[in-house]
Amino acid sequence: MSHSHPIVIANTGTEPSMNLFSPRRLSCGIVIVNEQAELLLCHVTGQDHWDLPKGGPHTDESPLQAALRETREETGLRFDADALLELGRLDYRPKKDLHLFAALLPRLDVAQLRCDSHFSQLGTGRRLPEMDGYGWFSFDRAPAQVTSKMAAVLTQRMDLNRVLGALTARAGIRLAA
User: Fold this and answer.
1) Residue 41's beta-bridge partner residues?
2) Is residue 61 part of a domain?
3) Is residue 11 part of a domain?
4) What is the pTM of this model?
5) Which domain covers residue 144, as residue numbers?
6) 54 or 176, greater pLDDT
7) Number of domains in the chain
């Protein structure tokens, strides 16, 4: 399956620059939804908000590879690249873009998830997981759980119901009305 033509389900905000030396950073991640129209979010350790599993690519790592790795590190979930729907590169913050993919997942028990990616706590040096909790949130409720910039992505730059529809159509699943 080719990932060169992302599905257009969003207003990207800005077109990606062809300038290879752009000062904009990139964060790559996976929008994980289930058939109950819920979004899987990760609670950011030490913060009041939740987030998508995402992070920056390593040198010579494609956005797809980075999204798969970051999701595995932050949730323990392993996805097949061919099962992902490319959403594309989206304007996120003044100096940062998101390159997102989407996946359909059965509503698993979030107690099974774990974060293997850690950081050193400022002041103490204690090693803490980047994510310390997980939850399924309805598409309507999810934007209230994330930062305002991520809420704008979820509500203005993409349509989660269309993402779910595209994923279920690809999987041959029929959703109840």
Assistant:
1) 135
2) yes
3) no
4) 0.86
5) 25-171
6) 54
7) 1
Helix (H) or strand (E) holding 98: strand 96-104
Strand pairing class (96-104; 25-33): parallel
- Smallest CA-to-CA distance from 98 within 7, 24, 160 is with 24
* CA pair distance 23, 25, nearest whole angstrom: 6
User: Residue 57 is which amino acid?
Assistant: P
Instruction: Indicate whether 32 belongs to any domain.
Output: yes
DSSP string, 28-96: EEEEEE-TTSEEEEEEETTSS-EE-SEEPPPTT--HHHHHHHHHHHHH-----GGG-EEEEEEEEETTE
Segment 34-54 mean pLDDT: 97
Q: Is residue 17 domain-resident?
A: no
Question: Which CATH number do you get for residue 136?
Answer: 3.90.79.10
Give the three-class secondary structure for 19. coil
CA distance 127 to 155: 34
Q: CA 99, CA 30: separation in Å to the nearest integer?
A: 9
